[in-house]
Amino acid sequence: MDMQNATLITLASELYEQGISKTRIAARLGKHRETIHLWIKGIEQNGLLGFLDAYERAKKGERQSRQIDALVKRWVWSIREREYHCCGQKIQYFL
Fold this sequence. Notes:
Blueprint: H1 3-17, H2 22-29, H3 33-58, H4 70-82, H5 88-94
């Protein structure tokens, strides 16, 4: 894990325990408020060390490709043309 992120997560946790708002923590650490919210929520559920372990595991390994196979794209577009721009539910039925 990036040491800087581990430090920022730990610092965010300590600041939150001192009663500082998530908005002020985000401004102080240079992160989005939603990021701080997710970190705090994870820390409350799993504890600081548990969250840091989970955070590290999430950053490892290969990511699954989000690209759709070209053949499937062609099928979808042909169904849309054939069925006059039908909805996704009908396309799923035809596939």
